[in-house]
Amino acid sequence: MTSRTDETLHQSDANGLDRRSFLKAGLGGTLLLGTVSMTVGLTGCATQPAGMVGDTSSPASNYQFRFLTADDIALFESLVPAIAGPGLPEQPEARRAAIAGTIERIDSGIHKFGPANQKELRRLFDLLNFGLTRVTIARVWSSWPNVTTDEAHAFLERWRTSSIGLFNNGYIALTKISNVAFYGYEENWHLSGYPGPPQYAVDALPQFKQTRSA
Amino acid sequence: MQLKDRIAQGYESGWNVTDGATLTENQIYEADVVIIGTGAGGGTTAEILAQSGLSVILVEEGRLYYQKDFKMDELASYANLYQEGMSRVTKDGAIAILQGRCVGGSTTVNWTSSFRTPEETLNHWADRFGLDSLTPDAMAPWFDGREQRLNIEPWTVDPNPNNDVLRQGCEKLGYSWKVIPRNVKGCWNLGYCGVGCPTNAKQGSLITTVPGALENNAHLFHGLRAEKLIFNQDRIEHLEASAMSADGVTPSGVTVTLKARHFVAAASAIGSPGLLLRSDIPDPYDRIGKRSFIHPVNVTVAEMPEKVDPFYGAPQSIYSDHFNFSGGVDGPAGYKLEVPPMHPAMAAGVIPNHGKAQAESLAGLPWTNAVLALIRDGFHPESQGGTIGLRDDGSPYLDYPVTDYLWEGLRRAFHTMAEVQFAAGAKRVRLMHLDSDWYTSLADCKAAIDKVPMELHRVRLFTAHQMGGCGMGAKPEESVVNAFGEHHHISNLSVHDASIFPTSIGANPQLSVYALAARNSARLANKLKG
Fold this sequence. Notes:
The complex is a heterodimer of chains A (214) and B (530). Chain A has 214 residues and is mostly helical. Chain A has a domain at 47-194. Helix content of chain A is 62%, strand content 2%. Chain A is built from nine helices and two strands, in the order H-H-E-E-H-H-H-H-H-H-H. In chain A, strands 1-2 form a two-stranded antiparallel sheet. The longest helix of chain A is centred in the N-terminal third of the chain and has 23 residues, at 2-24. Chain A is globular. Chain B is of the alpha/beta class and 530 residues long. Chain B has two domains: 6-83 and 100-112 and 190-291 and 468-529, FAD/NAD(P)-binding domain; 161-182 and 297-376 and 403-455, Cholesterol Oxidase, domain 2 (2-Layer Sandwich), CATH 3.30.410. The radius of gyration of chain B is 22 Å and the shape is globular. Chain B starts with 5 loop residues before the first helix and ends with a helix. The relative contact order of chain B is 0.19. The chains are: A mainly alpha (214), B alpha/beta (530). Chains A and B meet through helix 1, helix 3, helix 4, helix 5 and helix 7 of A and helix 1, helix 3, strand 11, helix 9 and helix 10 of B.
């Protein structure tokens, strides 16, 4: 009971501080983003973790999203094909499953990031999801489900080559979590020519055996 | 091979280990000494104090992971064993911070490089900070002792091809290089030190000093976050701690009160200043959290003509100090050269790109060598380091400005690393910089290095070594603790981790932490028993 109340208090407190710290920020870019981020909070984008999302996950998946919202998932469904690029399978069913699995691993990774970095990512994702800022800041004209892979790539290039450090930082955040979740996954190791842990070690070590004591 | 796992056996033999996630009611415990942190400093301190007969409580925010959990799996390890699930960065997001968060701290995930504190560094500390008792001669027995305890010796196996690129390049150019001493026993040369040693070969705190303490009746709490030291007049009376849920990141709401005669902060150069700041420790000269150092790291990667397989073999076995002190101890920024291991997730996270370009880079991973430079920060007036502060939720952050002095050193380091890689036969070289292409000749690469903007975010920067923030010194006006890690103002508080270094080390810091913690713990044990 107590912890639940604390959590609720903490959340509303964090939102309030979020706005204040943005308005206080000195950098011109930050100030602009902050003003709009406040608008995002007030206009109510999807703000709850998506939980179980049957239609976006792979058919067999019953993964429970703990951080990403339905809007965030749509965002990554557009970004992952541009980030993973030719590493994704071409066969539509396999491609859909590979994208969905990558987004699930992005979510479980972010869960372990802890509150401070989650807050930073929440600002970034809200900014990209909210129509006004998506158009004015990211210069992406369509809503994410309608963004082509070429358009997503062009957006990433703009932020990569921008002279504004804040956009470079956003680029690194988006690509790093996606690249790690994609290339780090066992089924994609072959894309980096990595054969996996040496088989002789796997065969010899107790932690890889099915039955072991303690 | 260590067929019998020391931790699993210890559990069976009745070690006193409490997982914070299992606690359902608030608790109070008492001991002679409470030690916050179980890494290089905390582990060493716990073993020495427990062996001397003192009762010891160890507090670790991360969870207890050991051989059964170490499956050479990057994603699981980065999520569970590293601070903020490997997403920790400096305040402006420009520098990625690699730091352990588990029993054993960073020693559970480091790459085993074990260097004595360079003599130049110790002499500088004596000259600049009045630390006359830490001369190389005075410290030698403490280094000897830790080298024996942790089986530290130069690696006798051939370097893996990734390290051999550094050796060959230095050899061709006439740059000095040496073999790295490692803290391993019966190492299989697999290459997975960074994700938790799968064979128990690494002699980190997890399988040496923490078990040594537990066998002498110490009580280990893991999944327990130290929140605040609470005073009664001029002494610390107890530590307030919060139990974490089984996910390791969410406080469960259960609190644990830990009372003791003496408290040792060993929560790292980010964690310890954070704890002291949260506790409102008297700080008349505003020194807590100041002069925080990180050995800023930049990286170049090379495509080699032969396979490198940078994911296999002892990750670090060759280093070069050719440029570390060549400009004098307090001259232009010096740097140590080493190589990092590159597994797929690490490589994909370090190489800043996407789409087709990223796919091509990753496809070349088996032929990829990476070299890194550790910039020696904190020795020059224009390198005063960063500052540890507290976020609104009380968690610590590091604000680290990169000064022009450091950028100049980083640019020189880019030049040196590219020279070394081309000298070793690289077909092409790329800077870990948003504006870098692949360069097929040294001339093109050097022209690019002179041209690319040395700016935050565009240069990819990393740190695996956090130091300072509770610096040692003779004068309370410019330091937090004395040469024995004893707090200048609070008589029952010591700091036994890398936060006491008044500058960076100029080498991977674990042996510096082990040796100082051993020295200061021997003194503390005598004091508390007397």
